[in-house]
């Protein structure tokens, strides 16, 4: 009715812009990224003149503008990657050691990224199964950074809308070569 689910001109629906994103990372800059749940692929915002961490996730998706991109974004898990000493303060009131790298993956207990549908909070079994799938996706994103063999430690955090929906320091990778 509103055209939010329309496919782009290729007939494929939403996809990540290869002009703004890459599937490789050299470890040198903080950035936002998208995980395509359908293709199980990690996309990292390119350096973009040093502003990759401030780029809108919706901007990284092709085939739509503004509000439609925001709706299409719900097919992709969004994440933020901070290299050492590039973040500051607390994350939802939780203290973070910013001298290390941090991967923050957005999770939502009531949105099923794989099936593209809302899950009512009353359906606790479905919500829990959905969170398990999102945790696995988060671990796949984390494995992407693990294979990069970065020279600094990285911690994985799964962040929901509230601190009670989040899990901090879920996994950790030591610096490569240690």
Per-chain topology:
Elements: E1 15-16, E2 21-22, E3 31-36, E4 41-45, E5 61-62, H1 66-72, E6 76-82, E7 90-91, E8 94-95, E9 101-106, E10 111-112, E11 117-118, H2 124-147, E12 154-159, E13 167-173
Parallel strand pairs: 9-12
Antiparallel strand pairs: 1-5, 2-4, 3-4, 3-6, 6-9, 7-8, 10-11, 12-13
Output the keywords.
about 180 residues; alpha+beta; seven-stranded mixed beta sheet; 13 strands; about 15% helix; disordered N terminus
Brief write-up:
The protein has two helices and 13 strands; from the N terminus they run βββββαββββββαββ. The chain has 178 residues and is an alpha+beta fold. It starts with 14 loop residues before the first strand and ends in a 5-residue tail after the last strand.
Describe this protein's structure.
- The chain is of the alpha+beta class and 178 residues long.
- It contains two helices and 13 strands, in the order βββββαββββββαββ.
- Helices cover 17% and strands 29% of the residues.
- Residues 1-10 have low confidence and may be disordered.
- It has helices at 66-72, 124-147, and strands spanning 15-16, 21-22, 31-36, 41-45, 61-62, 76-82, 90-91, 94-95, 101-106, 111-112, 117-118, 154-159, 167-173.
